[in-house]
Amino acid sequence: KYNYLLFGNPVNHSKSPIIYNYFEKYTNFKCNYHTKCVEKKLFLKNVLNFFKIHGKGANITTPFKEEAYKLSNIVTRRAQITRSVNVLKKISNNKILGDNTDGIGLLYDLRRLNFIQSRKKILLIGAGGAAKGIIPNLLSLNCSIDIVNRTFSRAYNLATYFKNLGNINAIKSSDLKVLNYHLVINATSFGIYKKSDFFISNIIFYPERTMFYDLYYENNLTEFLKWCTNQGAIYYSDGIGMLVSQAAYSFYLWSNLFPNIELIIKILNKNKE
Ligand code: ATR
Fold first, then answer.
1. Strand pairing partners for 34?
2. What is the CATH number of the domain that holds 233?
3. Separation of CA 199 and ligand 1 centre (Å)
4. Considering just the CA atoms, what is the radius of gyration of the chain in Å?
5. Are 132 and 82 within one domain?
6. Atom from ligand 1 closest to the CA of residue 125
7. How far is the CA of 125 from the centre of ligand 1 (A)?
8. What is the ipTM, given to two decimal places?
9. Do both 252 and 233 map to the same domain?
10. 65 and 91 belong to one structural domain
C-alpha cells in the first residue's frame, strides 16, 4: 500500500528510498516510498494500476522515462523538451502530470560543487537517454557542448535535435586530441559493465583546470572517475548530489516542501566513509 514508488529495471541498488527517508525525517511529509522493478511489457499496466489505487506520485528510471512521458496526461515544459519523464504526480482521478527534474538536479549539483558557470565549454560523453535529459539545462547557461559517443551517429542525432536551443555539436572521438574543456560529463553507462577500455583514451589532459562529473554513482570511485584520476584529474565528483537534487525537486512537486539538499548529501557521503 505504497503512495510513492520508483519504477525501473533494475532498481534494487537504488539509493532513492534512503534519500526519501531523510526527506521525510527532516520535513514531516510522509511519502511511504518504495522501489518497484517491472518487466518491460508490464510497465504501463503497473503504473496505471498504481495510480488507480494508492498511488500519489512516482519516480521513473531507466529504461522507462520515454514511456512515462507518453503516458502522462499533462507534461511540464522541461519534460516536453526532452520528451522524457522521471517524476509523475496524480493531479486528479484521471490526470497524471509528468515532469523531468534530472536536468535541474544536475545543475543544482554542479553549482553546489562550483563546477559550472555560464559560457563555458563542456564535453558530454554519451548520447543516450541520460545525456538527453541534461542538455537543455546546460545550454540554458549559454554553455557550448561537444558530444562524443562510441556510436557517432547517436551523438550527431542528439546535437541535431537540440540545435535550436544553443551551441551544440557532435564530434568524432578520433578528433578529440586535446581535452581543453572546463567541464567533462560522463553520461555513458560504460561503468556499469566495469569495462576498463574506455573509448576516449590517448588524449591530452589539463587536469589542473578541468572538472569531471559522472552522472552515475557507487560507494567506491566509479570506473569513469578511476579513469580520470589515473589521468591526473583533481576536480571530480560522482552523481550522488544529482540524485539527491533531482529527488528534492520531485519531492517538492509532490509536497510543496523543498528539502535541505546539502544536509542529505553530507549524510550520504559520511555513511560512505
Ligand atoms: P541511458 O538511459 O543510461 O543513457 P542508453 O540510452 O542505453 O542508456 O545510453 C547508453 C550510453 O552509454 C550510450 O551513449 C552508449 O554508447 P552507444 O550509443 O555507442 O551505445 C554508452 N555506452 C554504453 N556502454 C559503453 C561502453 N562500454 N563504452 C562506451 N560507451 C558506452
1. 5
2. 3.40.50.720
3. 11
4. 18
5. no
6. 14
7. 9
8. 0.96
9. no
10. yes
